[in-house]
Amino acid sequence: MNTVYISRNAVTGKLNGIFYGRPESSSVETLPEEHPDVQAYLHSQAGFPVLYKWQLWLAALELEPPVYKADILQAISALADKTSQEKEAIRIMVEDIQAYHREDPRIDLLGQAMRITPVQMDDLWRWAALIQPAS
């Protein structure tokens, strides 16, 4: 059983953040990761953490088979149902954005290019959020 640090909205008491390491804020509680509030947050669309691009791409390398960014960029350029402008927007989103938001609808397009379903992307997302830089 893992313990997580959580923050709550001061007015509503609703959970609004989960941390796997103790944040600097002193207004956090600890809960087991299996707690219903934690699980509800993790499985809600609003509960997805923001991923740094390195987190997503390192996680993609752990898929079976591994997914390489270069292959995804090639798959994007081959999308027959997208205009050149749409393809370029997706390429920019993949290569140039510094952080990814699960709620961005282009993430599901990225999932299609990676040959994974939205549910698999959700799982990958949660797992990737746990990857931390080496100290």
Describe this structure in words.
The chain is an alpha+beta fold and 135 residues long. It folds into 2 domains: 3-45, no CATH class; 51-128, no CATH class. 41% of the residues lie in helices and 14% in strands. The chain contains 6 helices and 5 strands. It has helices at 36-42, 53-61, 69-77, 84-95, 106-113, 118-128, and strands at 3-8, 15-19, 29-32, 51-52, 99-100. The strands form 2 sheets. Strands 2-1-3 form a 3-stranded antiparallel sheet, with helices on one face. Strands 4-5 form a two-stranded antiparallel sheet. β1 and β2 form a beta hairpin. α2 (53-61) packs across α6 and α3 runs antiparallel to α4. The mean pLDDT is 82.
Number of helices: 6
Number of strands: 5
Rg from Cα: 17 Å
How many domains is the backbone divided into?
2
Average per-residue pLDDT, rounded, comes to: 82
Q: How many angstroms does the end-to-end distance come to?
A: 24 Å
- List the secondary-structure elements in sequence, H or E: EEEHEHHHEHH
Strand content: 5-15%
Helix/sheet category? alpha+beta
Helix percent reads 40-55%
Unreliable runs = none
Biggest β-sheet description: 3 strands, antiparallel
Shape: elongated
- Order the strands across the largest sheet as they lie in space: 2-1-3
Summarize it:
This protein has helices at 36-42, 53-61, 69-77, 84-95, 106-113, 118-128, and strands spanning 3-8, 15-19, 29-32, 51-52, 99-100. It has 135 residues and is an alpha+beta fold. The protein has two domains: 3-45, no CATH class; 51-128, no CATH class.
